[in-house]
Amino acid sequence: MTLRAWAPGRVTLIGDHTDYTGGIALPMAIGLGIELLADRASDWIILGSEEVAGVAELPLAIDDPSKVEPPWARYVAAVVRELRPTDGLTGTLHSNLPLGRGLSSSAALEVAVATMLGVNLRDPVAAAQLCRRAEHRAVGVPCGIMDQLAIIAAVEDAALRLDCHSLEMAPVPLPPGVEVVVADSGQQRELADSAYGARRTECGLAESRIGPLRLATPRDAETIDDPVLRRRARHVTTENQRVDAFIAALAASDLRHAGELMAASHASLRDDYEVSTPELDALVARLRGTPGIYGARVTGAGFGGCVVALCAAGTLVDVPVVWRGRPAGGAYLAEEPSLVD
Ligand code: GLA
Known about the structure:
By secondary structure, this protein is of the alpha+beta class. Helix content is 36%, strand content 25%. It is built from nine helices and twelve strands. The chain has helices at 73-83, 105-116, 124-139, 146-153, 192-210, 218-222, 227-251, 255-271, 278-288; strands at residues 2-14, 24-40, 44-49, 56-59, 89-95, 158-163, 169-173, 178-184, 293-298, 306-312, 321-325, 332-334. Strands 1, 2, 3, 4, 5, 6, 7 and 12 form an eight-stranded mixed β-sheet that branches. The chain has a four-stranded antiparallel β-sheet with strand order 9-10-8-11. The structure holds alpha-D-galactopyranose (GLA).
């Protein structure tokens, strides 16, 4: 019997580079994602892909996923390594999610494979932790928990407030008449992995000065003598505050203020965290100048990829739109035919 696993991509409405210090983030799932159609059979994993070259051809007992070829198969291998299934898979991956554009395509791949292999999606935290371990093992990127948790636990028509320390999640409904737009800068996320690791290291150094950043205030950040570490800590401490201010603004349907908070978040990621690029800044500026747009900012890790905007439903935008709509639901397993063309 052919099964269908679906894992959506994610955008962060606000709250980036906060998850790995146990901070607050507000991601949501989008309507694009990765689908895996497969039969549970044999004792090998054999997965093709409609979008990328090569086949993931793996035994069930894998020791080191980081050496597997082709490179995309490392994510598959790492999930297999974590789950240690007893049955293999034969199937095909289809994706309508742009790959490597800051929409969590690697996390979506991990979650799609884990879902097909029977991970318990009713325990989203455990499933997300497993997929995050897989990401570390596959490519050595020390990512936080946000992407995997958002993809698994996403709720239709709501963003998800994540406390990345307690791992508590709360749905945050979007006010009626509001739409989310994801636009592509066209810039591949180059150097993203090494710069990401460097930011994590800097946060650790900042914490050795002022304690856990999730508990620190922007005022604490100002006491750090090293200017780079001070800026990094300023971003994290102010961004944590902005997430809850944004949630309060949505609850009050104060979209103008929500947009201002997105602008402040973008400026903080650009100036203090230094993860934006001129292309991303230009795209954000164009969106912000469009009537009907409340706010726009870089989304995800940065260094290229996509920006996210909040707008009145139906707003005309003159930029390359990857997706627009209201928040989508999370990953699932089904016995139904493909929805992706
Ligand atoms: C990447 C990581 C996440 C998170 C974001 C930035 O997407 O995988 O864990 O750190 O960057 O918010």
